[in-house]
Specification:
By secondary structure, the chain is α+β, with helices and mostly antiparallel strands. The protein has one domain. 29% of the residues lie in helices and 25% in strands. It has a 3-stranded antiparallel sheet, covered by helices on one side. A hairpin with a 5-residue loop joins strand 2 and strand 3. Helix 1 (5-15) crosses helix 2 (18-25).
Length: 80
């Protein structure tokens, strides 16, 4: 079942699995997901806001202006 991003973010940070959870916790600076078929293992398939045509994604650990950690996720319509 898809969950909204604001509900998923705390779970990714504390107990997220796969490469997206590692990026969220800051233990990995970036995760490259070149094929949509790998998104489930990475933790990305649970997002409600997945673009229908997206075929690849990259997740980057960032800091917000107040210093809190965040994850920036970008999608591409082309597999890489």
């Amino acid at each position: 079942m898809a969950r909204p991003l604001q509900d998923l973010a705390p779970a990714l940070g504390s107990s997220g699995t796969g490469s997206l959870g590692a990026v969220s916790r800051g233990s990995a600076p970036q995760a490259w997901l070149p094929e949509r078929g790998t998104w489930g293992a990475a933790g990305l398939a649970a997002l409600a806001a997945l673009p229908k045509g997206a075929q690849s994604a990259v997740a980057q650990h960032i800091a917000l202006s107040d210093g809190r950690p965040a994850v920036l996720v970008a999608f591409s319509e082309r597999p890489r």
